[in-house]
Structures are given as structure tokens and as C-alpha cells.
Amino acid sequence: MVIGLTGNYGMGKSYVLSVFRELGAIVLDSDKIVALLLQDRGVILKIKKILGSCVVKKDGALDKGKVAKIIFNNNELRQKIELLLHPLVFARVEASLKKIKGSRRLAIVEVPILFEGGYQARFDRTITVFTTQKTALERLLNAGVSRNNAMKRLKAQLPPQTKKKLADYVIDNNGTKQRTRRQIENIYEKLLEEMG
Description:
The chain has 9 helices and 5 strands, in the order βαβααααββαααβα. By secondary structure, the chain is α/β, with parallel strands linked by helices. It folds into 2 domains: 117 residues, Rossmann fold; 72 residues, no CATH class. Strands 2-3-1-4-5 form a 5-stranded parallel beta sheet, with helices on both faces. Helix 2 crosses helix 5, helix 3 packs antiparallel against helix 5 and helix 6 crosses helix 7.
């Protein structure tokens, strides 16, 4: 069974993924896949073609700060970058899932823009992690993200209320880690029951 896990920026998907991993699920983090892709020479060249040479450092590496600054200020360019990266991410996810086919384990795939991209049909079930915007902002500011950047990223995604309605399961990550963990454990048990 393959589960799509989503949630807006700063709402705690990483913690949720870590608990699912502890419980025995196979976890695929699309942010980590993107980080690897952004080191690929071919991908860097394609991004340079879309955004211009200013996003590539002298050593040939991608300047992720400049990329973020451009795409979170320009929806059209952001969509072009997403159209470039998403098929590559899903190709790697599918390759990983093929390796574990028949293992009778739950696979959780973290996809930040699961509903925005219309990717829910790729998954057996979906889970949304949510917090209030205030909580997400506090976490992002504590992590060193500027208020302006945090707000731009949050506005680039569907509102959490919409994601909650679209998801099969919802994890409220506004409280303590223990409270969140209990919700994750309950969902994990239900998903195992669904698997049979």
C-alpha cells in the first residue's frame, strides 16, 4: 500500500515521516530526492535555461537561495520548474517502490504539493499534516526562514483547510509531539488493517 503524505510548509511533515519510519513503514522523502536532483548537471542546465545564468554559481552548483527567490515571486516560473522536477521525482519514487513490491510493507511518500499537482490518484490513501498558520510561521522563523519568505511559500500552496477535506487521514500537529505521535500510531494501525 502506497500512501501520499502532504502538508504545507513548516507544518511538520518531517517529524511525521520519522515516526512512520520508526513504526516500520518504508519512507520516501521527495524533498531529499529534489535535493539530489538539484545536484545533477543535466537538471542544473535545464533550470538555468528557465531561470537564467544568475542561478548557477561559479563552481557550477545551483544557487538554491536565488532559485527560491525567483520562483516564489513568479508563479509562471515556479510552475515551469515544477513541471521539470516532478516527473523526475516520481520516476525515482516509482523505481524505489518497484524494489519493495511484494514486501507487504506500508510505503509513505512525502509530496509537498500532492493536491496542488493533482497527484492523489497515484496513491492508495492520502494523509495531510496541518497546523495553524501561526504555528507554522513560528516554526519557520525559529528555523531561520524570513517572515517574508515563509509567507510567500505558504501562499504558494493550497490552504490547509482544503487539504484536510481532500485527504483520507488528517494529522493535527498543533499540540505536543506525543499527541501527534499518538495520531500517527492510530493511522498506522488503521492502514495496516486496510492492507489486511
